[in-house]
Write a structure and sequence with these properties.
- The complex is a heterodimer of chains A (278) and B (260).
- Chain A is an alpha/beta fold.
- Chain A is built from nine helices and twelve strands.
- Chain A is 42% helix and 19% strand.
- Chain B starts with a helix and ends with a strand.
- The chains are: A alpha/beta (278), B mainly alpha (260).
- The interface between A and B is large, with 51 and 45 residues.
Chain lengths: 278, 260
């Protein structure tokens, strides 16, 4: 298993960019893919992942495990993830603080959870099980949300930090998701950074969003906005440099746009460290 | 305090059934109007994820009916057969059957067979890679045992039998297709779906070849499969078919059936 240097900056590798990434071999610290796109037995996608893996450390980012489902954890899904992890030996494996399925039905979305002691207990048991199955630690990401629960008795950041303390998992801190929620629910995102232990942060995500009727929607389809860059700078100061990813899924632009965003993130992380050492 | 399961039950039913008896807003902050507006975002995400997955599995059906109609078709399918897996590659297995029954696609009688073909192409895309094998061994099988040879087929290989020229329709809708776009609708085609390397290849087989492949894929030995093929087409040419299938590694091994 490879570990990533703290200054590593990567991009999400999506199918339209495969050829160009392999031919140009841009200087990137890692590539991140959605785990579920590679649950296949073989074929062109798996071959592309093998090629990516030969050239870069890989981060497997899951979107379908539904850790927070109240009824059960999908054993078939976990088994497919284990097979992929064994095959790829990724540098990072991550999932979300969310649920997506109930009973036989899967919504294939990252649905929000109330942040309660009950949810913390459930996630602690689930993360323990996933980590013992995969025989490695994983990262859990804060999600963007459009509704808030009345019965939450803590913030998602505080819940993640406690989850990390209990299970030894790391935190994938998505800067854009925190910002989206701050706007949607009207809180100061900077205050939430204090709830996260720097040592628990294993990766940061940067992405773009869109605004519809005053609600920010996490589309991963635009450049990182200036407010999120400012929040990222603050996070770098507080947490130190961490492996950072430019995440882009819809309206995918030219590869150079992603590489430009990645270079900006790398420059900002370096500048922050130089300033704090000056 | 409410149980998480109760909250998720209400949330779930409000996602797939607008106007359901469930009231997730009692667990959520904000007035009814705001909550409904925000839940609509999740509803749209759920629909979009399934529609995108279905479109990825059925790109030719999508081209044939057009994007807007396909989106409607996907929504109607999703209401009847929602996703059950966090792995969306599995989504859409029953789509051909749905298309066959759907009232508004009856003017395209070949569409269900085209969908059946596309599902096999979709499965073949992610099938296990065929490994190189020793063809010398095949030549060394004693003549008396040859009829007991059972071929191993590359994962993903399938035959889709239709009353319509579905292989041709599939082919002319491929991005890299070059040539005339005409289709002879009187032709009945048996489409062979096969992985050649990482590429999924669709080709039309004649009656004899199709009977042989279907029989052999089903596990029958060479002798029995050849009889099936000759019954379908007295001019069946075994050597020609085997040469083609072995060159492309669609047949990728063999065993001897001891029962024969």
């Amino acid at each position: 298993m490879k570990t990533l240097p703290t200054f590593a900056v990567g991009i999400g590798l999506r199918q339209p960019h495969y050829r160009e990434v392999f031919e140009r071999a841009p200087a990137l610290g890692f590539l991140e893919v959605h785990s579920e796109n590679f649950f296949l037995d073989g074929g062109a996608s798996m071959h592309a992942l093998e090629r990516a893996r030969a050239a870069y450390p890989i981060s497997l980012h899951g979107v379908g495990l539904s850790l927070g489902s109240a009824d059960a954890l999908a054993n078939v899904h976990l088994a497919k993830l284990k097979r992929l992890v064994d095959r790829v030996e990724p540098a990072l494996v991550s999932e979300h603080l969310s649920w997506g399925s109930l009973g036989a039905r899967h919504f294939n979305d990252l649905l929000p959870m109330p942040h309660t002691r009950e949810v913390l207990a459930l996630l602690t048991e689930r993360v323990d099980r996933v980590q013992s199955t995969l025989k490695r630690s994983i990262l859990i990401e804060n999600v963007s949300a459009y509704v808030e629960f009345r019965d939450s008795d803590m913030n998602d950041t505080a819940l993640l930090d406690e989850l990390a303390r209990r299970t030894g998992c790391g935190i994938l801190f998505d800067v854009n998701n925190l910002y989206v929620n701050a706007v949607n629910f009207g809180f100061d995102p900077r205050a939430r950074l204090a709830e996260l232990s720097p040592a628990a942060i294993g990766e940061m995500h940067l992405a773009g969003h869109t605004s519809v009727d005053g609600c920010l929607i996490d589309t991963h389809g635009a450049r990182v906005c200036s407010e999120v860059w400012a929040l990222f700078e603050e996070a770098c100061r507080r947490f130190g440099p961490k492996p950072t990813l430019i995440e882009w899924d819809t309206d995918l632009p030219a590869l150079d746009v992603l590489l430009g965003e990645a270079a900006s993130a790398a420059a900002m992380a370096r500048r922050t460290v130089e300033v704090s050492h000056a | 305090m409410p149980e998480l399961l109760d909250i998720q039950r209400d949330f779930a039913s409000s996602l797939h059934d607008v106007g359901a008896a469930a009231h997730p807003e009692r667990w959520l902050m904000g007035d009814e109007f705001l909550v409904e507006q925000r839940l609509a975002i999740y509803r749209a995400n759920v629909t979009a994820a399934a529609t995108k997955a279905l479109g990825a599995a059925y790109p030719v059906v999508r081209q044939v009916v057009g994007e807007a109609f396909f989106d409607g078709l996907a929504r109607a399918y999703q209401r009847l057969v929602p996703s059950t897996s966090g792995d969306l590659f599995d989504y859409g297995a029953a789509f051909a059957g749905f298309v066959a029954e759907f009232p508004h696609t009856q003017s395209l009688p070949y569409l269900a067979d085209l969908a059946r073909l596309e599902w096999q192409v979709h499965r073949a895309y992610g099938a296990e890679d065929a490994q190189p094998w020793d063809r010398q061994g095949l030549a060394q099988v004693a003549p008396a045992r040859q009829s007991a040879i059972c071929f191993a087929w590359a994962a993903g290989t399938a035959i889709v039998d239709s009353h319509f020229p579905i292989a041709r329709v599939w082919l002319i809708h491929q991005a890299d297709f070059e040539g005339e776009f005409n289709v002879d609708w009187s032709v009945r085609e048996r489409a062979l779906v096969a992985r050649e390397g990482f590429r999924v290849v669709v080709s039309a087989l004649d009656a004899g070849d199709a009977a042989f492949v279907a029989s052999s894929l089903g596990g029958a030995a060479l002798g029995a499969s050849t009889e099936m093929a000759l019954a379908a087409d007295p001019g069946f040419d075994l050597g020609h078919l085997l040469g083609r299938l072995m060159t492309s590694n669609v047949i990728c091994g063999f065993s001897i059936n001891r029962d024969e």
